[in-house]
Amino acid sequence: MEEGKRHYRLGLFVTVSILALAVLLFVLGGRKLFQPTYTFESYFDESVAGLEIGAPLRYRGVPLGEVSEILDSAAAYERDVPLDKRRNYIVVRAKVTLSAIEAIQVRRDAPELVKLGLRAQTQFAGITGQQYLALDFLDPAKYPPLEFGWAPKYDYVPSAPNRAGQILSKAQVFMASLSEVDARALGENLNKLLVSLNAKVGELPMARLTADADEVLRSANATIVRAQPLVTDLKQSVDNLAVITRSVRGVADRGDLDRTMKHIDEALERLNGLLGDNQYDVRVIVRDLRKSAENLRELSSTIKRYPAGALVGGPPEKVRLPAEKSQ
């Protein structure tokens, strides 16, 4: 009896654990399994290399879902069609899994959106990024739906060529147009150009140009010869300046310059003190020197006028004329 109860409890525990795990998985993400989704398909008559199952589906950059299938129309719809009549389109199916509301809304509005120009095209997420399926509105007259003769399994959304593929196609057309250029005419034009160029070169005064070039070279050589002594003197001056700089640096490093400046400062201080203590005596000496200079100036003037009288006596007597004596 006890053993039966233990088995019953064990079975109950396992059942409850499984139910709890299922509820947890459902809460974490299992609910999406029961949410409504919307799947559509589009056909491409060009390569979709780089587009993989699971690639993002975006509407003008907004994530909507992912690519669910990529297959050939021959395997999906044209098994019984002769080879020469098969379309050989690439069938790309995508699923809108963002939310139940988005799926319901896209399913309801898809026919009208297609009439307004909704188109699917492959794009790159950057220059070298992953390729994804993009939905956007384009000119429906410029990008009409592809022709096919089967009933699509899912709603059909027309496609538009990849922009990168269009650029490559235009480049190929341009290269093909270049290859169609008349090579013979191009060669003849090139020969004419070379003949004209040779004629123009022959008309040039080569002798005069050569003489002018020689004259310019001789002048340049003479200038270089004259400049060499200047360069030598400049180098000598630079060397002397370097020697003086090293000497000054040596004096500064030994401290002689600082000692000399200190001695000069001390001498100036002593001279200022001496002048301050004997300021009156200096003034008297300066005044006496000034008087002595004035006396010397007068003596010099007298000697110039009366050289003999300045040395032996006073000035000579005034000479009287005969007419003055008679009076």
Q: What would your notes on this structure say?
A:
It is built from ten helices and seven strands. With 327 residues, it is of the alpha/beta class. Strand 5 and strand 6 (131-137) form a beta hairpin. The radius of gyration is 58 Å and the shape is elongated. It starts with a helix and ends with a helix.
Ordered list of secondary-structure elements with their pairings:
Layout: H1 2-28, E1 38-44, E2 56-59, E3 62-72, H2 73-76, E4 90-96, H3 100-116, E5 118-124, E6 131-137, E7 155-156, H4 163-179, H5 183-203, H6 206-254, H7 256-277, H8 279-305, H9 307-312, H10 322-326
Parallel strand pairs: 1-7, 2-6
Antiparallel strand pairs: 1-4, 2-3, 3-4, 5-6
Kindly report the average pLDDT value. 77
The number of helical runs is 10
* H/E element order: HEEEHEHEEEHHHHHHH
- Helical residue percent band: 55-70%
Fraction of residues in β-strands: 5-15%
The number of strands is 7
CA radius of gyration: 58 Å
Low-confidence stretches: none
Distance between the termini: 196 Å
Apparent shape: elongated
Helix-and-strand structural type = alpha/beta
- Characterize the biggest β-sheet: 7 strands, mixed
Q: Biggest sheet, strands in spatial order?
A: 5-6-2-3-4-1-7
Give a brief outline of the structure.
By secondary structure, this protein is of the alpha/beta class. It has ten helices and seven strands. The protein has helices at residues 2-28, 73-76, 100-116, 163-179, 183-203, 206-254, 256-277, 279-305, 307-312, 322-326, and strands spanning 38-44, 56-59, 62-72, 90-96, 118-124, 131-137, 155-156.
